[in-house]
Amino acid sequence: MTEAKKKIKLRSAEWFGTQDKNGFMYRSWMKNQGIPDHEFEGKPIIGICNTWSELTPCNAHFRKLAEHVKRGILEAGGYPVEFPVFSNGESNLRPTAMLTRNLASMDVEESIRGNPMDAVVLLVGCDKTTPALLMGAASVDLPTIVVTGGPMLNGKLNGKNIGSGTAVWQLHEQVKAGEISMHDFIAAEAGHSRSAGTCNTMGTASTMACMAESLGTSLPHNAAIPAVDARRYVLAHLSGMRIVEMVWEDLKLSKVLTREAFENAIRTNAAIGGSTNAVIHLKAIAGRIGVPLELEDWTRIGRGTPTLVDLLPSGRFLMEEFYYAGGLPGVLRRLGDNGLLPHKDALTVNGKTIWQNCHDAPIYDEEVIRPIVKPLIADGGICVLRGNLAPRGAVLKPSAATPALMQHRGRAVVFEDFDDYKARIMDPNLEVDASSVLVMKNCGPMGYPGMAEVGNMGLPPKLLAQGIKDMVRISDARMSGTAYGTVVLHVAPEAKAGGPLAVVREGDWIELDCAGNRLHLDISDAELQARLAEWAAKQQPDPADQSGYRQLYVQHVLQADEGCDFDFLRGCRGSAVPRHSH
Ligand code: FES
Ligand code: MG
Q1: Does the CB atom of residue 59 touch ligand 1 within 6 A?
Q2: pTM of the full predicted structure?
Q3: Which residues pair with 161 in a beta bridge?
Q4: Contact between 393 and 386 (Cβ < 8 Å)
């Protein structure tokens, strides 16, 4: 046994390491799985936290992924124990997978802390599974490594590439504008999703995979290797080997998830043209590990960074091409070579710094990972907006927006909620023109509830028919990372919480000024206060919020600027072994 091993007292020995009634009970029941005595003698027990589910199609290949992680763990002298947690899949779960992100994180946290494990491998993929598992694991702080399931192969339609999600929004607008038939629209389904894996655009799943890698919580290349590429399984195997070493090195998650790591991730998000959802998820993860992060950090660190990765929805290519072009290590190298990687010495899970990992990473395709002098967008990042319409902030993704609309003054067309929007948007008599600002209320964390991805409201068909492709849209909702448009999201406080959004009226003038980081409702302060008082007097509790998980959620969810975590879940509660169960 090496010196390092002698110094580490395994947490799992608190279950399996005693010759008494308790040790008997913990070992005996495990032995019903055919585990011989020697497996309990001083080997690190590695949890494999699996979000496999056939209802989360993006993670449906995870049992095979887990098998490869297990091989690595066994090879390195650990013992793997796979366990399921709540799998919040983006495509099926209603009303939105965001509603249950925090629920999943609680499941993860309690599963890790309450069980005999010395470290954990997080198997993540679909959008919310990545933040949920990192949030839960951060609140425990064992050695932790992320293994992502990988993106789907390129979608194909009529011989051309199509991107997950982005193609749906585009095809749907083409149907509404009468450019394609409903038959063609439905026929595109199978080619859209033709292999295992997550959305192949730079949507939220790919963004969060890149965030996990830039935070240092995964091995290099974890973000982009396609789900069905054999090298994905090699990475899983190597991650299994590495997590055993991390136990002996006592390399806990808090040593990786530092303020410096988050700054690297924010810069990376700008370089990849990442999803606005990352703003919420990184804040929530940082909150669990005790790292302060503010909305303005996205302006300070992210703005001005060129978007180098030419992927849909902002650009042209897909994750498959991104991997072949050099993947995230190529992007990190390009940032670092140009003085744009804020913290080259940030530690990663393989025990090396992020710069040691990527300083010589090759780039094979300069169309996909652009040169710094030929970026996709010169000034990428997330635009943080404030003003009397969003006192606690709102965000817009410039790389998905129309530049001419990023300074805009227009009259509000107001939808009280998503149902009101759906009921009226098709109406040919809707009073709206291309200069109008579409405003939707009550789609925030408490209002929807769960802050659904409905912020990229489809345009009125009569304007689509005129060839209008984009308009300013404002809401307290989120937007899918695969979506695009001049869309102001995450308005905080949300309408349901009494934010000024609640009292916007039809015909009000609204000013959007991205250069000035400003979102302004053009009414006097006195008028705003009077409207808010009138609004507050009319509020009634919603019976649907009075019981069940929804009650817990609505009572405790924080606003978007605070990451939509539950107030009582913030912070790290550590990995102290709970008292015996018998
Ligand atoms: Fe799962 Fe997009 S729906 S990754
Ligand atoms: Mg998504």
Answers
A1: no
A2: 0.97
A3: 156
A4: yes
Query: Domain boundaries in the chain?
Result: 43-153+198-295, 156-192, 383-540
| CB 483 near ligand 1, within 6 Å | no
Q: Is the dihedral of CA 324, 329, 335, 337 positive or negative?
A: negative
For 398-441, where are the E strands, in sequence order?
A: 407-415, 437-440
pLDDT in tens, 150-192: 999 999 998 999 999 989 988 998 898 889 999 989 989 999 9
* 266 close to ligand 1 (CB < 6 Angstrom): no
Distance, CA 397 to ligand 1 centroid (Å)?
A: 20
**Closest ligand 1 atom, residue 58 Cα:** 1
Q: Which fold has domain 383-540?
A: Glucose Oxidase; domain 1 (3.50.30)
- Looking at this protein, which amino acid is placed at residue 21? K
Q: Which of 52, 54, 58, 275 to mutate for ligand 1's pocket (most ligand atoms within 8 Å of CB)?
A: 58
CATH hierarchy code of domain 43-153+198-295: 3.40.50.2300
For the segment 71-124, what is each residue's pLDDT rounded down to a tens digit?
A: 999 999 999 999 999 999 999 999 999 999 999 999 999 999 999 999 999 999
Q: What separation in angstroms does the CA of 433 have from each of 147, 463, 468? A: 47, 7, 9
| Bridge partners of residue 510, in order along the sequence | 410, 521
Give the strands of the sheet with 509-513, arranged side by side.
Answer: 390-396, 383-387, 518-521, 509-513, 407-415, 437-440, 472-475, 487-488
